[in-house]
Amino acid sequence: MADRDDLGGQLDSLHAISVEIAALHEMSEIHERALSYCRELTGSEFAFTGLLVDGTRVMDVAAINGFEPLDPAFYDQFHLMAGRSNLLWRAIREQRPSISNDVLNDSDSVGQPAGHPPVRRFLGVSLRVGTRIIGMIGVANKVDGYGEDDERILETLANQVAVAIDNARLYQQQRDMIGSLRKLQQRLSDAERIGLLARERQRIAGRLHDEIEQRIFSIGLGINSLLETSEADLTTAQRLQSIRQLAVDTADATRKAIFALAIPGNGEGDLASNLRSLLRDLERTSGLHAHLVVSGKPPPGLEQTQDVLYSLINEALTNVQRHANAGMVLVSIRYEGDQVNVVIQDDGVGVPNSIRNTFADSYLHFGLRHMHEQALDLGGTFEVANGEERGTVVRVTLPLPSDAR
Description:
Blueprint: H1 2-22, H2 27-42, E1 46-52, E2 58-65, H3 74-78, E3 80-82, H4 90-94, E4 98-100, E5 122-129, E6 132-140, H5 148-229, H6 234-262, H7 271-286, E7 289-295, H8 303-324, E8 328-336, E9 339-346, H9 353-356, H10 366-377, E10 381-386, E11 392-399
Parallel strand pairs: 7-8
Antiparallel strand pairs: 1-2, 1-6, 2-3, 4-5, 5-6, 8-9, 9-11, 10-11
């Protein structure tokens, strides 16, 4: 009888909770209140919300309540998850609540990343607006395990949270639309000129990359072959080395010109809009599925930083198109505190270890070396790695200028 009374009290409190959450407009507040109530009502150790990225099979862990990772970089590394057949995605895949009271031995369990607290028991329900699933809520580690009552409570709360999230998105879209209309009024007179200039810059940069740089690259390879296979005297070898260095320096200068030309140069510093345009062009010309995820808001005064980011991302996408044999590429940008983090990930063939370990000092891989140098010049970091399952992951971190914070 006591359990029935407890359940009745929990269900009675859902109405007041729903009214409270429905009145919120800020996404962060919705997540914070909702997850606190989810933990309280189900007796869980921690909870999270994951939102599907529109038009993709990618979920973004939007908020976590109940644990703080020891490594500050944990969230940046693992908050985006590609959809696949595992325990976490079961609630979305099967469109019904998913319970596992023995996670370690669950057939859909695929393990947990280093630094994640151990999950022994799990309950996940989808976030649904009408017939559309927008994400999920998950809770974990209830001491005595999850049952039907927990399903019913969490599913009822999830329905209200989904509506609140959808309303908050619409509210934000309204604000963004008003702001965009105001900006559009200011830019209309220059729009055509800016578009023509950007297309011409891209055309010139493309020709430099496809023709001039490749020819310089071939010259360097030819000279290197002569140095390795011929028995030239010391004077001739030194001259060949000087010519090879001249080819390297010329390629460096050409690459810098390509980077400068590839920047849209519209004076607005709107990195996200420029990248969306770049990704649309990439999809149209290559058949790749390209996605952009931006979190956080860039502070003003970031023109130089965002120009470098655009160049780096543009070069990374060029490499994906030419060398990765990929079907999908995801670009993630996160503004956080005093830095901006960028990840470009594809599902292609990956990068050989011989290139990943030598590109910083190699005269053969101009693009990767210049990307590395561009990041270092601004006090940032640059990393190229292969994905856990397949593909290539490029990570760039740049500090935000102190006067832009």
